[in-house]
């Protein structure tokens, strides 16, 4: 037991390495932009102030949405999806066919419409819970996660019902952060590259800052575009690769409510809060909304 416990602790510690890496890169980018570019390189005070104002706006929103994605813990199914003690004991003794009969009886009255590929009630033997629609077991988090999209190593967390809005905003603000840096650094990048500015300690930071910002912008752009498409379709990454199976068969659009309502499902019905990483949705109503009742 002790070696297994130590191994799990090591795995949990190592899982933070990508998060630490991102924070180190962002910390360096802040120093490079504010100190090396704005303070030591840009001569015009009006330009400095305007750049710093917009930069800090994007920086704050980026950090806010990033850490909300990290700190919003995944939500697991409520107790109503757990088998009663008697049912659980009986379930463990029976053969698969009899087990399904037990699950079907237990699922009566529950808002469960999806099935396995063979038409069986979705049940997690590890968590011992009937899976609600769009719920999947994450082996990394070691739990069933409501409306699971994927497990993201860059936030060391499952992206799902509790933080999907924050994740999309994190992608949006990280992209804006990178494109703003690249756009405002470009003219000084060219001046350093063509030796129009003297070689100073700022040169390395400015040159490298442009490359890093451009590289991250290009890589994030495709991911952000993909998740915008998922939001418009009201699908998760898992559902995009494998259509959910309902009682009458697979239906890739089974949870789609139309573009406008699909967006509301993620961002909430108060548009003034869409751009902020705060909770704006009605919890259970959103979770079990589907096209066909």
TrEMBL record:
Organism encoding this protein: Oncorhynchus tshawytscha
* Source taxon at top rank: Eukaryota
Q: Which family does it belong to?
A: Belongs to the DHHC palmitoyltransferase family.
TM stretches of this protein: 14-33, 49-67, 166-190, 202-226
GO CC entries: membrane
Domain description: The DHHC domain is required for palmitoyltransferase activity.
The protein's topology relative to the membrane is: Multi-pass membrane protein
Q: Which reaction does it catalyse?
A: L-cysteinyl-[protein] + hexadecanoyl-CoA = S-hexadecanoyl-L-cysteinyl-[protein] + CoA
Q: What is its EC number?
A: 2.3.1.225
**Primary location:** membrane
Annotated PROSITE patterns: DHHC
| Presence of keyword Transport | no
Species lineage = Eukaryota, Metazoa, Chordata, Craniata, Vertebrata
**Enzyme class (EC, first level):** transferase
The molecular function terms in GO held by this entry are: protein-cysteine S-palmitoyltransferase activity
**InterPro entries associated with the record:** Palmitoyltrfase_DHHC (IPR001594), PFA4/ZDH16/20/ERF2-like (IPR039859)
Task: List each coiled-coil range.
Answer: none
Q: What is this protein called?
A: Palmitoyltransferase
Keyword RNA-binding assigned:
no
Keywords (alphabetical) are: Acyltransferase, Membrane, Transferase, Transmembrane, Transmembrane helix
Location(s), subcellular: Membrane
**Palmitoyltransferase DHHC domain segment(s):** 122-241
